[in-house]
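General statements about sequence and structure are easier to judge against a single worked case. For one protein, we set the task of working out the structure tokens from the amino acid sequence alone. The sequence in question and its structure tokens are set out directly beneath this paragraph.
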Amino acid sequence: MEKTEQTAVLEAVLFSMGEAVKISRLAELIEATEEETIALVGEMIKRCEAPDRGVTINQIDDAFQMCTKTEMYDHLIDLTKSDHKFALSDSALEALSIIAYKQPVTRLDVEKIRGVNSDHAINRLLEFDLIKELGRLDAPGKPILFGTTEQFLRSFGVKSLDDLPELSQVQIEEFKEQAEQEVQLKLEI
């Protein structure tokens, strides 16, 4: 297969799939090595960076996905006449943070860390496809294990979980102090 045909195949597949496609699968389709495939997609990404292009290609772990550029979102919202924007409550963001950094994690683990019931927050995260069920813990009751999805990575603009920011020791100490103060207030009440 010639390079121009390979590029056309890659573009067609990434455009039509709507989700991330593994590099190994793309390489099979165009009869190339993974390295050659990554190089071809890299060229496509560079062409998508032009200001007259409305799409881009993102790498998510060991896969690529064609997506709309973020600066085009307002136009898409205008087109659909939807005033509803993707918004998460503070409790949902807390639960999502815990799941992202501790996965796989059970609902009970999230609730222990947050100190409150997290049913609603976890259900909203499932609804927004930011988390998914990863299986069940081999323990009494077989609780469900949760982890993040590709949609989570796309929504927060990270290629993999390794790209999540790390907390500094100062931040960890501040969080511990806040938690201790909250516990003390509950005891006083």
User: Anything to note?
Assistant: The chain has a mean pLDDT of 86. The CA atoms of residues 16 and 66 lie 9 Å apart.
